[in-house]
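[job 0412] stage=fold_complex status=start
inputs:
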Amino acid sequence: MTKNFEDHDSNNLIPRNDEFGLSKAEQDSKFIADQAPAPLLKQLLGFWVTFKSMFKKVNTVQYPEVKEPTAPRFHGRHQLNRHPDGLEKCIGCELCAWACPADAIYVEGADNKPNENYSPGERYGKVYQINYLRCIFCGLCIEACPTRALTMTNEYELADDQRGKLIFEKEDLLAPLRNGMVKPPHPMYPNTTDENYYRGEVTSAHPSQGTVNND
Amino acid sequence: MSDQLTTTTDVTLKIDGFEVTVPKGTLVIRAAEKLGIQIPRFCDHPLLAPAGACRQCLVDISINGRAFPKPQASCTIPVENGMEVKTQLTSTVADKAQKGIMELLLINHPLDCPVCDKGGECPLQNQAMSNGNGQSRYEGVKRTFEKPVAISSQVLLDRERCVLCARCTRFSEQIAGDPFITLNERGALQQVGIYEKEPFDSYYSGNTVQICPVGALTGATYRFRARPFDLVSNPSACEHCASGCAMRTDVRRGKTLRRLAGDDPTVNEEWNCDKGRWAFKYESARNRITTPYIRDESGVLREASWPEALSEAAKLLLNAKSAAVLMGGRATLEDAYGYSKFARIALQTNDIDFRARLNSNEEREFLANARPNATYKDIDDADHVVLISFEPEDESPIVFLRILKAVTKRKLAVTVISPIKSRGTEKLKANFISASAGFELKAIEKVDGLTNRSVILIGERALETEGLLSSVEQLATSKGAKLGWIPRRAGEVAALTAGAIGNLLPGLRPVQDAKARVDVQTVWGINQLPTKTGKSTDEILKDSDVILLGGVDANDISSSAKSQLSNKKIIAMDIRFGTSTEVAHVILPVASVVEKNGTFLDWQGKPRSFESAVESLNRSDVRILSMLADEMKRPINLPTVKAAANEIAQFDKWEKSTSNWHVSGTNTENLNLGPTEAILNSWRLLLDRGSLQEGEDNLAGTARKTIIGLNRTKAEKLNLVEGELVKISADSVSISAPLKIVETEENIVWVPRNSTGAQLVSKFSKPSGIKVSVSKA
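[job 0412] stage=fold_complex status=done
writing structure:
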């Protein structure tokens, strides 16, 4: 038994002995398995630590009944944002997929048909998937997004019982339609180009774009 | 470099302090490449004439100590002895000049890289990073244009992205001979444009998209579909015609998204045609066959398992009185070899024919005995090219580009024997001899000036005139001219080489030659081969009772082929539902070109190997034939494409041929044409109703329109005006299309063979050489 221990690097094996107040020399000569019980005083010292912490404030949260707010810039589930008139900000450029170190994002772009825009301009993201089994929440995709379409929410409850459910589709990621927004596809705001959208000059939907959402 | 190796035509110069010796006339930019020094460039393209349009490649040059006062464009200046070149790497002047040019180019270039198709593989993006300033000093408003402008149904133009390098216009003018795209306006408003009334109507327009160094020209089909980093690129070969282009197939998640021209200087250089580039959706079409089918007693197709389908097919073939194989011209060498071996061993017959199209016995003899020997190189070196029954722009577009290159570069003499003077003939500035189908023999006599450097290219359509193949072969032999036989489809030369025809065994060995049979028996390890010459396509359709069809479309053969097939037991191996599966009793799915490995032989006989680009459960024809043969207990032992290729390699070349196969043509005498009658002539246009172009709407948008072509005198006699709807009819069927006045003989009427509304093969008794009456529709 002893021989077997000696075969190993003894320094790596014994660091735990430090906690018992053994000197380096003692560590070299003695092994945990061979220890006699520590002196009573030392044992009481250990219990004192336990005793002291009984009066400290408890950190435990009764999750999921109680949910603590995250830090404001916590990296949670992604969201695909919308322009104020309801058009999607995503243009399907795939820069997020390009930036992703975990290869968790899959995008397919497509052409906006005239007056049936999903996004301002020519191109929109037809397929948008994020695989949360792969995502490492590093946020590089957010940095890469040229239109601020992709941002992260603080939602962290991303667990499920099937792997397939953790591949989020575009519908799952899109920001909800707020009041005053029109569900795409619909025409762009009259007499605007995509640039007006990017400069934030479109601030609401125009009646010609369709029926607004009033939930 | 030793002095002995340099000849008087070599020039030695110094670039960035390094000495380099290059042939005289080399451009500085190319000499720098030889040293591995990269000078940024946009307009420079090795196959186009220098333009010096973008000014990005500025370098500092001095000759024998005398310096040019300003930086020079290295893409336009040929090297000289004693020249000393300083690129951006050693000269601050050159570096500053390049950065300045880049800044100017970027002033009006939009910042829309995220939506631009070129993003990620863009020379402008890359070189702005490597040779540009990080910051622009420009604060004004960028020039904008309406975008995108569709300059044809396939090519979209974003003018604001253009850096005016003139690659596209130079390509169209110098290489394709279709100057339909030019630079308009001057100064800041200069822009690429097309004529107001003429679209960008070129069969080669896709190349402009490929060589555009920015995203100014993009393909409508690929637009916004993917990013370069999504794609897995595979070298491949084109399956559309016998030109044999090297290709690159870009695949995303098992789906082909685009195809680009590959670089093969001995074949397609760096170009290809729009059909090769943009016709690939057929492989993922909805009518793809993915599982075997069996037709039940009530005549309805039902899905079946592989074992059941194979056993049913084997039963049919074993119980046949006379089983035969017909295969289309699209099989690879290995697959064709599988069919060939399957017919000989499993069916114990020579009844196999790859010519599931118009065919003649004279053609079969020609294929067995003539030894066409022309190559692309011969066209480059030729003193005279004669085209007979062959319309290169439509039937083998890369051959056309080669001839056109020699015509523009060194005024190559071209003679075309064809029914009408086509646009291709005009572009080749050819000596045009008008001859209707059936009358070419007389026209051949008019061809003179043939030497042993001349090239005669004869198309597949030559078989439609009796005696034509014979006399052309005799003509070529007598003058020592090179002869090239250019079939329409990519697999025909391979099928011929594999012996998928009744009178030949693999390697062009005649069935009737005992020594040839022994060769084949040795490789195959059998004692007996059928000795009777096999039936031709027409005879098979008439006499055989069970036919194995490999990728055959009955509408390619004749108007009666489909009804003939419907009386027989058919086993169809195909990729999609079509005319063959409609009459089939057993259907076995096979792999399409992107899903399998294989080799095509181009018209020169040069192997064009390719590997599967897409993972698939579908298997190559040869694998399925091998399983079927096993099921019949007559194994052919070709479990993989590789096995077939290895076995093919065991055959030596067979050079012997007989010389007394020639047929003398009758030089069809007067057809007794009535005043309203004319002789029907036709060929297939490049873009038409071909089955591999189905579903390619953007491509179809640039197809030439269906017309009925007559010469002016005839039209006037019949009181018809150009553009008016005209009808041609024969055998109580008719076709109508707008009239077009063409340069031709008076007794000729020309119609595209397989275009919308004019599918001649499945309609008329013959698609050419028959009498039709012409009238107002």
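[job 0412] summary: The longest helix of chain B spans residues 92-107.
[job 0412] exit 0
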